[in-house]
Every structure is written in C-alpha cells, then in structure tokens.
Amino acid sequence: MTAATFAAELDAATTVLEAAGLSSARVDAEWLLAGLLGVGRVSVRMDLAETVPAPIAERYAHAVSRRARREPLQRILGWEEFRGVRVRLTDAVLVPRPETETLVEWALALLPPPGARRLLAIDLGTGSGCIACALASERPDLDVIAVDVSPAAAAVARDNTRALGLASRVGVVAADLLDGIRDLGADLIVSNPPYLPSALVPELPPEVRIHEPRLALDGGADGLALIRRIATTARRYLRPSGALAVETAGGDQTEAAAALLRAAGWDRVAVRADLVGIDRFVAGRA
User: Fold this and answer.
1) What is the C-alpha separation between 158 and 97, in angstroms, rounded?
2) How far apart are CA 106 and CA 134, in angstroms?
3) Rounded to whole angstroms, how far apart are CA atoms 129 and 135?
4) How confident is the model at residue 162 (pLDDT cuts 50, 70, 90)?
5) For the segment 164-183, what is each residue's pLDDT rounded down to a tens digit?
6) pTM for the whole thing?
7) Which of 144, 265, 279, 284 is deepest in the core (most CB within 10 A)?
8) Annotation: CATH topology of 90-285
9) What are 285's strand-pairing partners?
C-alpha cells in the first residue's frame, strides 16, 4: 500500500471528524497531527506533499478515532496553554477554559502591588494547577497554596508545578476546600469551583459529560454548594481587605453568588463579565 501524504491524511481525518458532528473538524485534525509531530499547528500546512511515516499515520488514526468519540482535543494532546503556561492534563482534571483566564487577570489586579513582603494566594479546586501556576508565573513575589479534594488532581497539579519550575512557590494540598488549612493570612483566595446544577450535568456535550471528572463539574442542586461554603468560610483565612475572586456559571448564578458574598459580610462585592460579555465572576474584600 502506498503511504499517504500529509494532505491526504488531514483530508481523511477532517472527513471522519465532520461525520462525528464536530464543527471544528479541520482545526482539530491539524492540531492532532501537530501534536504528534511536536510542531505548531501552522507548521503542518508547510509540507503537505510529504509522505507520512507509517508509525505516525498509525498513531494519527488512533488520535482521530478518540476525537471522533468526542474525547476533548486537549486531553488527547495531553496539555493546554493557559495564560502563557502549558499544563499537563489527565482524565482526573478539568480542561482549562479560556474564560478562566479572565478570572486570573482580575485576581492579579486584586493583589497588592509588589512591596517589601511576599504575598500569599490560595487556589481552591486547583485541578491541573493552571490558575495557581499562572498567578505564580506572573507575580514572582507571590506564593500559592493550591488545594483540591481529589488526590489524583492534586498529583497532576504537583507535576505541573515541577515541570514549570514553580514547585518552590506553589504548594499543592489534597483537602476539601479550606478544611485542614491553617489561617495563614492570605492576600487572595481564588476559585473556579464546580458550579453546574446537578440536573444539568447529564445534558452537557459528550466532551464534558463523558470525559470531564464529574467532581469538577457538579455544584449541587443549585450549582452553588461550593460557592456557598467558600463565601461563608474564606474570610477568616485572609488578611484584612484581602480579596476573594470566584468563577460562576454566569447569568443569574453570578448575581446569586454576589448575594451570598454580601450576606456573608464581604465588602465591595463586584461582578465582572467574561470574554463574551456574560457576567461570570464575583469578587469581594474581607
């Protein structure tokens, strides 16, 4: 059998992914091939007439098959870029979303300016550690405690801190939110917690419903179970005027989360929109 060219492999993969109902079929086909070759997505378009080595073609067919079964692209690649850091992913952690970069941007703005002392942040529900690592990479004067209830997720976050050279400033703890965490007088608590109502989880796209850990999605009956706990417990772990910033499902839930913070005594509660203009983030001061 004559070996196929890169062009032919990409076309065949695109056809398979289109048949699976993926609107991003061509882009996904290119990313999967780029990942196998260890190059950027644009680079796979440069030598389309070249022949694909048999081992690469075999691995590519397997990767395309996984994507056709609606496994997330990032999980097949094994990584995702998040605010300039690349984090490794496994099935124990949520794939980082672009909108969460806005949460990090706001959290950074809520920190005190650089000064004589080191600052401390706590990242609740760290998952892959993407938020904790992004914060630490952008503020060299910041130490971070990254917390996740899942030991498997905590292990992934710990591996990412090491791979990024941040392990000396980002400590990872397996714990249920702030349970067992000492009152350390943090400057910031940030969280992208599970916030989807339980009844909504079975209706999610296959990439999320089947392949994301339910523990990272399900926020209880109203989606606010974890946010409610954070609102009522987090203040005592912060310095005076320390900040809390939380991601929500958006819309009405954002206003409900803001009301929870106000009821729990948080000061200067504010809401911020995501990349498409939907109110999604809530912050307050201790």
Assistant:
1) 20
2) 12
3) 10
4) very high
5) 999 999 999 999 999 988 88
6) 0.92
7) 144
8) Rossmann fold (3.40.50)
9) 243, 267
